[in-house]
Design goal:
By secondary structure, the protein is of the alpha/beta class. It has six helices and 14 strands. Strands 1-14-2-3-4-5 form a six-stranded mixed β-sheet, with helices on one face. Strands 6-7-8-9-13-12 form a six-stranded mixed β-sheet.
Length: about 300
């Protein structure tokens, strides 16, 4: 009898470990974290700039804790806010998103859109993410992206949807180049234009597909910011991200790394983002995050 009970005990142990892992993953998805990095990309003698990078909020109005956490980041008083898309997760989420950004909308800002600003989430087989580039995108109901754009631009933020632009931020003039969501193949790289007297050229994209990173690097961007990957969302403590949902290498799924193209090397920051698909509200070894990037001259 004792011998025959061992397989059953083993099965119970596996089930118990699975339940515990799921419980932890549900909790980790609410463990919002502020990351900090320093990037030496400004000209010599320039004053440092503090850039708050926010991505993949995936907000539904009931998620008050997440909205409140983002709202509280206004106390950082960043010089610039960069939003790399996927803010929405419901048709009625735009007012809640704008409230969540709150006083951050009073700061200089730029933004691009992601697939989940255009199309609502749907239940999906998680195994799809192990297909090349996450498989063919599955879209749900159309979301009011135009209302989100109106809210951001009404606050004075620069819309970088397949566009270029410049902003005076602190004592520096920044030039930007952005694209619409590459995961949906909405990206149309804007025509070449001289950066003029800009102190820094910044590339902004939702999904960090190689074709976009190569184009921005070859175009003269000195730093590139992206989101989309959720940092892998379900990671292994040593191996890291299992997937990126695009053709970005897994080792670059989050944080600061380097990108090389056309004989140039530039810093790339990929945000692991603040949210998840509401149908899979879990994270493992990959906390939800926003990032404060301090841009400085080289040492």
């Amino acid at each position: 009898m004792l011998l025959s009970s061992r397989p059953a005990l083993g099965a119970l142990g596996v089930v118990g470990a699975g339940v515990a892992g799921l419980g932890y993953a549900l909790l980790e998805a609410r463990a919002f974290t502020l990351r900090r990095f320093t990037l030496p990309v400004l000209p010599a003698g320039a004053r440092p700039l503090r850039v708050l990078h926010v991505s993949d909020l995936h907000l539904v109005p009931r998620q008050r804790r997440k909205a409140g956490w983002l709202n509280g980041l206004a106390k950082l008083e960043p010089d610039l806010v960069v939003s790399t898309g996927d803010n929405l997760a419901a048709t009625d989420a735009v007012p809640a998103v704008l409230d969540a950004y709150g006083a951050l909308l009073d700061r200089p800002g730029v933004f691009v859109l992601g697939s989940n600003d255009y199309w609502g989430p749907r239940p999906k087989n998680p195994a799809r993410y192990f297909l090349p580039h996450g498989g063919r995108p599955i879209t749900g109901v159309r979301l009011p992206a135009h209302e989100l754009v109106a809210g951001f631009t009404g606050a004075g933020w620069l819309d970088l949807t397949n566009a270029r632009g410049t902003l005076d931020v602190g004592d520096a003039r920044l030039a930007f180049v952005g694209v619409d969501d590459p995961h949906l193949r909405y990206d149309r790289y804007p025509p070449a234009a001289a950066a003029g007297d800009a102190d820094l050229v910044v590339g902004v994209t939702h999904a960090p597909y190689r074709r976009v990173l190569d184009a921005m690097t070859a175009d003269g961007a000195q730093v590139v910011l992206a989101g989309h990957t959720h940092g892998g969302q379900l990671c292994l403590p040593v191996a890291g991200a299992l997937v990126t949902n695009c053709d970005l290498p897994r080792r670059q799924a989050r944080g600061v790394s380097s990108w090389q193209a056309a004989g140039r090397t530039v810093p790339l920051h990929v945000s692991a983002g603040l949210g998840t698909n509401p149908y899979t509200p879990v994270r493992f070894a990959c906390r939800p995050e926003a990032t404060l990037l301090t841009l400085t001259p080289p040492a």
